[in-house]
Design brief:
With 248 residues, this protein is of the alpha/beta class. It has one domain: 3-Layer(aba) Sandwich (Rossmann fold), CATH 3.40.50.360. The protein has seven helices and five strands; from the N terminus they run βαβαααβαβαβα. Helix 1 links the parallel strand 1 and strand 2. Helix 1 runs parallel beside helix 7. The protein is globular. The site of flavin mononucleotide (FMN) has 15 residues, from helix 1.
């Protein structure tokens, strides 16, 4: 199914950065494919990164505060903060979400992690029993486009920084697949600060090419809930599969 409505979530403080260039090139490629493109340029928006009581318009001013429970209650009551509701509305419309960010400390920049913490609320993005392949985002595809400072070798299985799969897993599995997204393989620009202009252009082309070939790109594999027993471990007759080795 071709992309009808894409959402690009960009987390970079510099509008002139390689990350911003990748996001804009992706937007052009998706538009050329006939998709409508929405943006969440988190730094430009000044998006608040810290989840808490402020996210819930009718939160109790003091006393115990259970964030997940309050998020679920406020989502049902329509009392989530307006910036969260606006992001949820963009997500609800999108059938493809591209996350563009530099790898910071082996993970997402805090502003993007905050977007995840605040926007992917109980009730909206997951619910007890409504997650993984049964999650609310199950009709949407998502893909990471990441830049790193270290070169590809550092992210090889025996590399100094550890296999890139270990870094992708918390985001692709713990956030995206858990909410139900179909996860397309990440595009990684290794050693971005050391790339020549030509290498950057080549990488931008590679990302656009991937977007043009989305329909033919096999999704990453995550075991469906039915593969797990009550102990949350794979049933004895299920052959374990990993999402697959990612290679540059
Ligand atoms: C706070 C911070 C943390 C970083 N952590 C990592 C890291 O864990 N691994 C890595 O390979 N590069 C790391 N880098 C380097 C960035 O990933 C790199 O500079 C960026 O991907 C280049 O893209 P840009 O030119 O668009 O900023 C870090 C940079 C910053 C500022």
């Amino acid at each position: 199914m071709s992309v009808r409505h894409a959402l690009i979530v960009l987390a970079h403080p510099d509008p002139q950065s390689f990350n911003a260039a990748l996001a804009h090139a992706a937007a052009r490629a998706l538009t050329d494919l006939g998709a409508r493109v929405s943006w969440s340029d988190l730094y430009a928006m000044g998006f608040g990164a810290v989840a808490g009581r402020g996210d819930i318009l009718d939160a109790p001013a003091e006393g115990p505060f259970n964030l997940a429970r309050e998020q679920g209650r406020a989502h049902a009551a329509g009392t989530l903060a307006p910036d969260i509701r606006a992001e949820q509305a963009k997500l609800a419309e999108a059938d493809f979400v591209l996350f563009q960010f530099p790898l910071w400390w082996f993970g997402m920049p805090a502003i993007l992690k905050g977007w995840v913490d605040r926007v992917l609320t109980l009730g909206f993005a997951y619910g007890l029993g409504r997650w993984w392949n049964e999650g609310p985002m199950r009709d949407k595809r998502a893909m990471l486009s990441i830049t790193t400072g270290s070169p590809a070798g550092a992210y090889a299985p025996d590399g100094r920084n550890g296999d890139i799969e270990r870094i992708l897993w918390p985001i692709e599995a713990g956030v995206l697949a858990l909410c139900g997204f179909t996860v397309l393989p990440a595009v990684v620009a290794y050693g971005a600060p050391w790339m020549t202009d030509e290498e950057r252009r080549d990488h931008i082309d590679r990302l656009c090419q991937r977007l043009r070939a989305l329909e033919a790109t096999p999704a990453r594999f995550f075991h469906p809930l039915s593969d797990f027993g009550d102990d949350m471990r794979l049933k004895p007759d299920v052959v374990p599969r990993t999402p697959g080795q990612h290679r540059p």
